């Protein structure tokens, strides 16, 4: 008799990853992610900076960081990330698994339909791994905001943020009601083409406004701890207390952006983060420029008021050896209860930024590159 072939047990398909919630890797206190400003230092160029962004994105994917976001800033010589969607398209071509997103797109600067088209295109390029983080600030000074928005009131768009958000959401889901002026307008790529996925919407903020709005809408929330640390815990508390479950999310999920730089020794870390502090001082006093060199920052003579600003700024930058950075991030996660830490490494050179993410990944025993 011919034996019957052995029947194979059907293999259950792996569940699709959650569009928001991430998994902790190694010994990290939360999932870790990356926020990129594509900084440009003196003696470097935007081309080199954006090449570094690709290098960091590939490293982040290989080492188990969960997502990689790009910030939108304008008229800042030291930043090359004025067009997040363009950068994200480039990163999508160089990665396969890591979530890619905006941290964020400043909604008042753009027509909602344009954003829906851009991020629908990204979703078509990288299905199931695109985040659309939205902010209501201009990402620049008032004059530049007016130039972007073609109006004299840079605050008008921010005041209309909830309405713009509702409009953008309907373009993304293609569900304007009958009779609406936009009911026959479709954002493409998008649902009208049978395109199944839509970008995951997040709200970003540095105060309580977006925290409350995200909670009301049941959306994930990302808070800018790296430049508004004094508001972090009040905003997160407000978000959690006000949260209403939605189809997108059944319970609150909060990410905080954290300035973190690890180097092989403490002195190097201090010299590197001082370049970022001097750059921020110049930006805040109307003198934006390229990220200064460590030598320039060390030689700068700060006034007493300037020194006070720099000291306050550096208090919220987790920096030092890998062990020191790990301890600082552990403490921050514990104090804030954040569900995810999104790290931004600002330094004069790209190589230092890349090395920082390597050292942090090693400190937490994240997966090694294959």
For the largest sheet, list the strands in their spatial order: 1-2-3-4-5-6-7-9
Mean pLDDT: 92
- SSE ordering: EHEHEHEHHHEHEHEHHHEHEH
**Which ranges are low-confidence, i.e. pLDDT below 50, for 5 or more consecutive residues?**
none
Count of DSSP strands: 9
Q: Tell me about the biggest sheet?
A: 8 strands, parallel, barrel
Descriptive overview:
The protein has 13 helices and nine strands. α1 links the parallel β1 and β2 (67-70). Helix content is 41%, strand content 14%. With 370 residues, the protein is of the alpha/beta class.
Strands, helices and their partners?
Elements (H helix, E strand, L loop, with lengths): L31 E5 L9 H18 L3 E4 L13 H9 L6 E8 L5 H14 L4 E6 L6 H8 L6 H4 L1 H13 L26 E6 L2 H10 L3 E3 L8 H11 L11 E9 L3 H19 L9 H6 L4 H12 L1 E4 L1 H15 L3 E5 L5 H14 L7
Parallel strand pairs: 1-2, 1-9, 2-3, 3-4, 4-5, 5-6, 6-7, 7-8, 7-9
């Amino acid at each position: 008799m011919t034996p019957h072939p052995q029947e194979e047990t059907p293999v259950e398909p792996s569940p699709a990853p959650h569009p928001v919630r991430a998994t902790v890797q190694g010994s990290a206190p939360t999932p870790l992610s990356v926020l990129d400003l594509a900084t440009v230092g003196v003696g470097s160029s935007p081309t080199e900076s954006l090449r570094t962004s690709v290098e960091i994105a590939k490293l982040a994917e290989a080492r188990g960081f969960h997502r990689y976001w790009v910030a939108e800033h304008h008229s800042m010589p030291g930043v090359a990330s004025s067009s997040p969607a363009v950068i994200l398209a480039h990163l999508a071509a160089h990665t396969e698994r890591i979530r890619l997103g905006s941290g964020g797109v400043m909604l008042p600067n753009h027509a909602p339909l344009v954003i829906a088209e851009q991020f629908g295109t990204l979703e078509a390029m990288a299905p199931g791994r695109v985040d659309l983080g939205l902010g209501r600030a201009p990402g620049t000074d008032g004059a530049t905001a007016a130039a972007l928005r073609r109006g004299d009131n840079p605050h008008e768009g921010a005041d209309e943020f909830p309405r713009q958000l509702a409009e953008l959401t309907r373009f993304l889901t293609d569900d304007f009601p009958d009779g609406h002026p936009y009911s026959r307008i479709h954002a493409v790529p998008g649902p009208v083409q049978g395109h199944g996925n839509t970008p995951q919407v997040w709200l970003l903020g540095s105060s309580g406004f977006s925290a409350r709005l995200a909670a009301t809408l049941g959306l994930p929330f990302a808070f800018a701890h790296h430049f508004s640390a004094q508001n972090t815990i009040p905003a997160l508390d407000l978000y959690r207390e006000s949260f209403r479950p939605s189809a997108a999310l059944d319970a609150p999920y909060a990410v905080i952006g954290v300035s973190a730089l690890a180097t092989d020794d403490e002195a190097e870390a201090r010299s590197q983060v001082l370049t970022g502090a001097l750059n921020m001082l110049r930006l805040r006093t109307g003198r934006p420029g390229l990220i200064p060199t460590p030598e320039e920052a060390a030689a700068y003579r700060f006034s007493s008021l300037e020194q006070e600003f720099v000291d306050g700024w550096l208090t919220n930058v987790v920096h030092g050896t890998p062990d020191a950075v790990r301890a600082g991030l552990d403490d921050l996660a514990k104090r804030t209860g954040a569900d995810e830490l999104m790290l931004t490494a600002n330094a004069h050179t790209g190589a230092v930024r890349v090395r920082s993410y390597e050292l942090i990944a090693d400190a937490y025993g994240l997966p090694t590159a294959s």
